[in-house]
Amino acid sequence: MSPEQKQTLDTFYAGATEQDAAKIRPLLTDSFTFKSAMMAFDNPDDYVAHLVGFCGRVSDSRFIAEGNEVAHIFTLDAKLPDGEAHIPMCDVFTFEGPRIAAQELYADASRFPKE
After folding, report:
1. What 3-state class would DSSP assign to 109?
2. Any idea what DSSP says for residue 43?
3. Gyration radius from the chain CA atoms
4. Domains defined for the chain, CATH in brackets
5. Mean model confidence pLDDT for the chain
6. For 5, 59, 67, 108, which has the most beta carbons within 10 A of its beta carbon?
C-alpha cells in the first residue's frame, strides 16, 4: 500500500468514526461508487450521508494491497437495534491517485437486522 493510500484510508476511517462528512468527502472522486449485498450508491454525496449516520466502529484491521486496489479485512463492532454485533467484513477500495474511486463491501448480510 502506498503512503498516499494509507493516509487516505486513515483519514477515511477517522472521518467515519467521527461521523465527519467534511473529512470523508474530499477523499472520494466525483464518480465514486459503492456496492454491497445490502445497498449501492452511484455518487459520493449520498454515500457519505449514509456513512456518517451509521453507528459502528472498526477493529482487527488488516490491509492487503495490489496496484490501485486495497483490501481492508476487519471486524465491524456495531450497535444494532437488537444489541451489539461483531461482524467480519472486507472492503475493497479502488484508487485513482490518492482518492477513492470505488468501494465494494463484502459481509454476511444476514448478520444485520432487516429494516
Report:
1. helix
2. S
3. 13
4. 3-108 (3.10.450.50)
5. 88
6. 5
User: 29: which 3 cell numbers?
Assistant: 472522486
Task: Say if CB 9 and CB 24 are below 8 A apart.
Answer: no
pTM (2 d.p.): 0.87
Contacts of residues 76-79 at CB distance under 8 Å and 24 or more positions apart, as own/partner, are: 76/107, 78/54, 79/55
Mean pLDDT over residues 4-30, rounded? 93
Measure the CA–CA gap between 49 and 39, rounded to whole angstroms: 14
Is residue 24 classed as helix, strand or coil in its secondary structure?
helix
* The three-state (H, E, C) secondary structure of 63-93, written as one string: EEEECCEEEEEEEEEEEECCEEEEEEEEEEE
Grid coordinates given for 12: 477515511
Beta pairing partners, 85: 78
What pLDDT is attached to residue 105?
Answer: 94
pLDDT tens digit sequence for 32-41: 999 998 889 9
Sheet containing strand 40-41, edge to edge, reads 40-41, 28-35, 99-107, 83-96, 69-80, 56-66
